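Weekly sync, protein design subgroup
Attendees: M.S., D.O., the rotation student, P.L. (late)

Item 1: inverse folding check
M.S. brought a backbone from last month's batch and wanted to see whether the design step gives back something sensible before we order anything. D.O. pointed out we never logged the input encoding, so this time it goes straight into the notes. Structure tokens as presented (285 positions):
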């Protein structure tokens, strides 16, 4: 397991009974997490400081309960990046802080390459990876089927001082976009994707990671340049082993390079507990 442990504006304060107590800047939230199966609170007094609590509904979904005034939007920083957060109706804030490990990896690889890198970011959400790659000097093609998430990503790019960077925002079904890029003959030096377990494209196209990930990776191979830098897949799909992602790269990446995979976790402050937050697989030059 790799750990995202260089945050200053985010931390897990405690974990208990299917919930995590998190600090996002000066806002403290309680949100559900099924990985937290133990019942005992380590720091019970800290839970009284929460500003808001997301409650799951037995019928699906859920809602926020606000204990004090929480802004509609606020910002936190990770190193030189600035992200806009919002308490969303399905428990999220618009940012997955464990991804900082992947951001650091991408920034390091791009800077060390000493050349202009073209990055394709698929299922790009609110643009954490897009901001990271732009900050390292890369150009980015940001693809997501959600108009709202893409608008949010533009906000994050601007807040991070990157609005003059070379970035294209595309609202489209990922597979259809990749197929068109192949026909156009476009190439990318790096590809990063964060595919959902299940989803719908911009025009209602159905995505299933079990049924479609192999096809997508196979298509993406045709978009890699002659001198690729990295290919990274992140996943939150329950039950999917990191080794499955590594196996895909073993099948497709025939040239020299390093393949790695594993879990990504977040540490709990003043504790040796680690919260698993997903898996990754990657090929790198």
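Designed sequence read out in the meeting:
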């Amino acid at each position: 397991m790799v750990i995202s442990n260089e945050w200053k504006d985010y931390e897990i304060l405690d974990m208990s009974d299917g919930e995590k107590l998190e600090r996002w800047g000066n806002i403290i939230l309680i949100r559900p997490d099924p990985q937290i199966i133990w019942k005992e609170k380590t720091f019970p007094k800290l839970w009284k400081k929460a500003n808001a609590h997301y409650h799951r509904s037995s019928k699906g979904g859920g809602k926020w309960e606000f204990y004090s005034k929480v802004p509609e939007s606020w910002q936190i920083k990770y190193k030189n990046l600035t992200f806009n957060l919002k308490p969303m109706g399905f428990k999220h804030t618009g940012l997955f802080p464990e991804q900082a490990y992947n951001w650091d990896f991408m920034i390091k690889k791009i800077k060390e390459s000493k050349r202009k890198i073209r990055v394709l970011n698929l299922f790009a959400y609110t643009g954490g990876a897009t901001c990271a790659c732009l900050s390292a000097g890369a150009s980015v093609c940001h693809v997501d089927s959600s108009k709202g998430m893409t608008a949010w990503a533009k906000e994050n790019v601007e807040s991070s001082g990157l609005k003059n960077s070379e970035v294209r925002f595309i609202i489209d079904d990922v597979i259809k976009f990749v197929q068109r890029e192949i026909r156009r003959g476009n190439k990318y030096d790096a590809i990063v994707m964060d595919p959902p377990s299940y989803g719908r494209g911009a025009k209602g196209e159905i995505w299933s990671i079990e049924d479609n990930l192999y096809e997508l990776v196979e298509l993406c191979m045709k978009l890699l340049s002659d001198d690729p830098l990295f290919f990274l897949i992140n996943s939150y799909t329950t039950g999917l082993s990191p080794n499955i992602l590594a196996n895909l790269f073993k099948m497709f990446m025939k040239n020299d390079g390093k393949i790695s995979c594993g879990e990504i976790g977040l540490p709990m402050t003043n504790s040796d507990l680690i919260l698993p937050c997903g898996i990754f697989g990657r090929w790198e030059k």
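Discussion: The longest strand covers residues 274-284. DSSP finds six helices and 17 strands in the chain.
Action: P.L. to compare against the previous round before Friday.
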